TrEMBL record:
Pfam families to which the protein is assigned, alphabetical: His_kinase (PF06580), Reg_prop (PF07494)
InterPro entries in the cross-refs: Bact_2-comp_sensor_kinase (IPR050640), HATPase_C_sf (IPR036890), Ig-like_fold (IPR013783), Reg_prop (IPR011110), Sig_transdc_His_kin_internal (IPR010559), WD40/YVTN_repeat-like_dom_sf (IPR015943)
Organism of this sequence: Chitinophaga agrisoli
Spans through the membrane: 742-764
Protein name: Signal transduction histidine kinase internal region domain-containing protein
Keywords from the named record: Membrane, Transmembrane, Transmembrane helix
Record keyword Membrane present: yes
Domain of life from the UniProt record: Bacteria
GO molecular function, one term: phosphorelay sensor kinase activity
GO cellular component: a single term: membrane
Length: 996
């Protein structure tokens, strides 16, 4: 809704942080005396809140404060709950019985009762709106009448009076009609029984004071007591206040005394509401708001505020702030500390809001205010304002500084000249015409030194013309003949004797700065710079540097002012800093957060406890020792708890099952109606990795993917210049899911391990089976190869044996041939049996070799003898060896060693154990290996090499599947050092299988 402001109201743009969104209005307060005289008074800084700030509606019926400190507003479209920064709005969708809430009432239990036109009771408590829909104790038939007033008895039951003068009782269990009194009940029934019923409203607006049931009560249209009577004032504060048209009464069972009559104060409109605030009285009407400061001290001055505004209610909160609700213009708030300040600008007497200099005459009490456009404003001791215009023919001619001069004259330094103002005659006179005057100072003896853009002048004396750099300020010293000059490129000094100016920065490079102002104080030169803060100089050397690092409000200094009693005031673009000159240290800072109209300060003046500060937004003056400092910490509250997509009502404990990858958030706030944007928060979250307190300006703390466990969140806050509040505690328990329990995790780990073991076992088994199949396959192949090689030996032996039989037949030895064939057949059968086996016993091998040797002896006509030398140890075991591995060696020894020998030969076969191998040597005394090879034909050599190579190959195959290493070695005894012995020794190590 668009706001309407009368002439005294002006929105001050660019005042305070725009993030605050509350608009500030300077009210021109017209002081209306009983005689009808109109004088101008100081302004008040007032905040305005409206729909765009979050208020539910621009029409606000009433305002109350709950037990926690929130301010509640009732409107035609719901209610608004305000913490100083944020509005939380409630309507029917949030549980209200009707959106049109005409009145509110807070009770001692912390509940806020809503009065709606449908007459259905409802209240806010425990973060929820309670109505008949969710609370059976509120079930009630209103019969079309709505509640007017509410009271609370000593048992804290709530009693309502509706428009039908029926009484409704609520005892937390049910809501019922109740008929009290012999002749029915009305509002006076409750007022008469004030010992039982405590009203939940600040005042009662009635049409009459006549109580039919209290004929002895006296009514006083005029108060018999003065307003500064402490007993009478205590009575007013301790009893119900009743408004009848435009009069206000203090009500007791004995009498009703009028203590305010609007017509006596020039108020003809009907009074809608009142507020008793300390010694002040606030009166709201349908057309304006009135403030009578010090009403209860007998003051007769009335101030009219918010002209053409319908005032619907007034509230003084616990901090002393005043809340004003209006019909159609939102809510106005006057911060408590603004009552300690006086404000002047173009809305209440000044030419403009831009101020450059201030001075107050001690003799007359007149306040002089220097402004732009050559305007001098004055306000006398009676607060009467006047304006004087200096010469503006050559430019803007702003009044830059004011200094006491002679008698009643005040020296005025303006852009285009030097003037005097006489406080007695109140006349302005031109003293010296100058172009671009920058600064002026007066020496202890009264010498007036002037610094202009292009010259330095001593009034009624000499001038020094100046080119570069730009002069900004001048300061006289105690010697009366020397002075310092500030420029935009450094510090200079000059003397009357030489009439020359010299650079002072040559002795200290830090003085080569852009200088804004200079002030000589007790042998020290204080230098205010454009961007480096303050330098304290003695003998052209810097002895102290004060900057923002030392708590200076800003390094941009705009003016220096010394109050003569040890304090230097530094006006900056971010407020005023006060420096103890003796200690050369900052004692405090004053800014818009403390109540100034703007942080852009141009000048300061101090006199008799009153501090005057000129800003770009007006003049602010106040008692220097009575600046209110709100050191009470704000109240911290929880607003909401969110876990995942669900929002929960705030509570001291939060318990929930764990949700994977879900954010946990806590939304909170602080109740601070003054400077809410300067509130900062700290939190500590146990089990968090961060140690100590974490500072934040946000009112939401997120904790992403909070793991199961117990946590404790501590929240605290502080506002401007206050301490930290007591922490608000929230216990958080994130319960693990069943699969996150220790036993479930143990089972899962055990099952996992079992699964892994099963898989590993399966893999190992598969690998072993594969290896076994591979080994079996290789073994089978090796056996088949061995058998194949053995079978290769069989035809060779058969061929030789048949040759022998043929030889016997040719020699006509049929009987011997038959015997030979019989033995040969037995040998063949034995050889065929052995060829099917991978291993045969050593006894079977010896028997086979014996039969073979016997046949060979027959074939070679008993030309050799043989002998087996068997180690006795072999008889203790059953030793198995591969078949047909010794026979070829024996055959070679007979055929190629003994057969060619001209005499009888001998063959010895030796068997013994050597390291789990069977050592077998075949020793003959034949012609020898070398001699035998020399007489062999090519075919025989090939045959022998084939036999030996087959034996070696069989030994290698046995190694591949048995792992045992065999050996074959042929030794020519004559060549190998056996003396003169002839013959061949063949040694073979055969892998065996040994069994008991």
């Amino acid at each position: 809704m668009q706001e309407h402001f009368s002439c005294p109201l002006l929105i001050l743009n660019s005042f305070f942080d725009p993030m605050f969104r509350a608009r500030y209005v300077l009210l021109a307060l017209t002081l209306l005396l009983c005689t009808g005289n109109h004088l101008l008074a100081q302004g008040l800084m007032i905040r305005n809140y409206n729909v765009k700030d979050g208020l539910a509606n621009a029409t606000v019926y009433t305002a109350v404060q709950d037990k926690d400190g929130f301010i509640w507003f009732s409107t035609p479209t719901g209610v608004s709950k305000f913490d100083g920064k944020r509005f939380r709005n409630y309507s029917k969708k949030d549980g209200l019985t009707d959106n049109d809430v005409i009145k509110l009432a807070p009770d001692s239990r912390g509940r806020i009762w809503f009065f709606t036109l449908n007459g259905m009771p409802s209240y806010y408590g425990d973060y929820t709106i309670h109505s008949a829909e969710n609370d059976s104790s509120l079930l009630f038939n209103s019969h079309g009448h709505y509640m007017q007033y509410a009271f609370e008895d000593k048992s804290r039951n709530i009693w309502f009076l509706n428009t039908d003068n029926r009484i409704i009782q609520y005892d937390t269990k049910k809501t019922t009609y109740d008929k009290l009194g012999p002749n029915g009940a009305d509002i006076f029934y409750f007022l008469r029984n004030d010992e039982i019923f405590k009203p939940l409203h600040n005042y009662f607006q009635l049409s009459t004071l006549k109580d039919a049931n209290n004929g002895d009560q006296k009514i006083f249209p005029l108060s018999p007591y003065p307003l500064d009577d402490e007993t009478f004032v205590a009575r007013i504060r301790g009893n119900p206040v009743i408004i009848v048209k435009n009069t206000v009464y203090s009500y007791t069972l004995k009498d009703a005394i009028c203590f305010f009559n609007g017509r006596d104060w020039g108020i003809t409109d009907e009074i809608t509401n009142v507020c008793l605030e300390n010694d002040n009285l606030w009166i709201g009407t349908q057309r304006a708001l009135f403030l009578i400061k010090d009403f209860f001290k007998g003051s007769r001055s009335i101030i009219k505020l918010l002209d053409n505004h319908y005032i619907t209610s007034l509230l003084k909160d616990r901090d002393g702030n005043i809340w004003i609700t209006t019909f159609g213009d939102g809510v106005y708030n006057i911060p408590y500390k603004n009552f300690y300040f006086n404000y002047l600008d173009n809305t209440n007497g000044l030419y403009s809001h831009s101020i450059f200099s201030i001075y107050r005459d001690r003799k007359t009490g007149m306040l002089l205010i220097g402004q732009n456009a050559g305007v001098l404003n004055t306000m006398d001791a009676n607060r009467k304002m006047r304006q004087y215009t200096l010469d503006t023919s050559s430019g803007r001619n702003s009044v830059l500084s004011m200094l006491p001069y002679r008698n009643d004259d005040i020296l005025l330094a303006a852009d285009n000249g030097l003037y005097t103002f006489n406080t007695a005659t109140q006349r302005v006179s031109l003293l010296e015409s100058l172009n671009n005057l920058k600064d002026v100072d007066i020496s202890p003896s009264g010498k007036v030194r002037i610094a202009a853009k292009d010259q330095i002048a001593l009034l009624d004396g000499y001038s020094i013309y100046w080119q570069e750099p730009l002069i900004t300020s001048i300061a006289c010293t105690d010697s009366d003949t020397t002075y310092f000059l500030g420029t935009n490129s450094g510090l200079y000094y000059g003397t009357d004797g030489s009439r020359e100016v010299y650079p002072a920065y040559l002795e200290d490079d830090r003085l080569k700065q852009s200088i804004k102002d200079l002030k000589w104080i007790k042998g020290f030169l204080w230098v205010g710079t454009s961007d480096q803060g303050i330098y304290v100089v003695r003998n052209n050397h810097v002895v102290k540097h004060i900057s923002t690092a030392d708590n200076l409000a800003s390094d941009i200094c705009q003016q220096l002012y010394y109050d003569g009693i040890g304090r230097l005031y530094v006006a900056t673009n971010k407020g005023v800093s006060v420096i103890d000159v003796g200690a050369q240290a900052i004692t405090r800072n004053i800014s818009s957060n403390d109540g100034l109209m703007s942080d852009d300060t141009r000048g300061v003046y101090y006199q008799q406890g009153m501090l005057y500060i000129a800003t770009s937004n007006g003049l602010c003056y106040f008692n220097d020792h009575n600046i209110p400092v709100d050191t009470v910490p704000p109240t911290v509250y929880l607003s909401a708890i969110r876990y995942g997509d669900t929002t929960y009502l705030p509570a001291n404990n939060f318990v929930h099952l764990y949700k994977r990858k879900t954010s946990f958030e806590v939304e909170f706030g602080a109740i601070a109606f003054d400077l809410p944007d300067l509130v900062e928060y700290q939190y500590n979250f146990s089990s968090d990795t961060a140690s100590g307190w974490t500072t934040t300006m946000s009112n939401i703390i997120p904790f992403p993917d909070l793991q199961p466990g117990s946590y404790k969140l501590l929240l605290r806050a502080r506002k401007y210049k206050s301490d930290w509040s007591q922490p608000v505690s929230l216990s958080v328990s994130i319960l693990p899911q069943w699969y996150q329990q220790w036993w479930a995790r143990g089972i899962l780990i055990l099952m996992g391990m079992l699964c892994i073991l099963a898989i590993l076992r399966y893999i190992v088994r598969r690998i072993k089976q594969a290896e076994k199949r591979k080994t079996e396959y290789n073994r089978r192949i090796a056996e088949l190869e061995a058998k194949a090689l053995t079978n290769q030996m069989n035809p060779h032996f058969i061929f030789n044996s048949l040759n022998s039989v043929q030889h016997l037949i040719l020699e006509k030895e049929e009987k011997q041939a038959l015997n030979f064939l019989a033995d040969f057949a037995t040998l063949m059968r034995q050889m065929l049996n052995n060829s099917r086996k991978s291993y045969i016993s050593l006894e079977e091998e010896i028997a086979f070799l014996t039969r073979y040797l016997e046949l060979e002896k027959i074939r070679f006509a008993h030309s050799f003898t043989y002998h087996f030398d068997i180690e006795p140890e072999l008889k203790d075991y059953t030793v198995y060896i591969p078949p047909m591995i010794i026979q070829p060696i024996v055959e070679n020894a007979i055929k190629h060693g003994l057969a060619p020998k001209s005499s009888a030969g001998h063959l010895e076969i030796k068997l013994e154990m050597v390291d789990d191998l069977l050592y077998c040597s075949v020793d003959d005394d034949g012609i020898g290996w070398e001699h035998s090879n020399s007489i062999k034909t090519g075919r025989l050599v090939k045959h022998e090499s084939t036999a030996l190579s087959v034996i070696r190959e069989r030994l290698q195959i046995i190694k591949s599947f048995n792992g045992s290493v065999g050996k074959l070695e042929i030794i020519d005894k004559f060549k190998s050092g056996f003396g003169n012995k002839e013959g061949t020794l063949v040694e073979i190590l055969i892998p065996i299988v040994k069994m008991l």
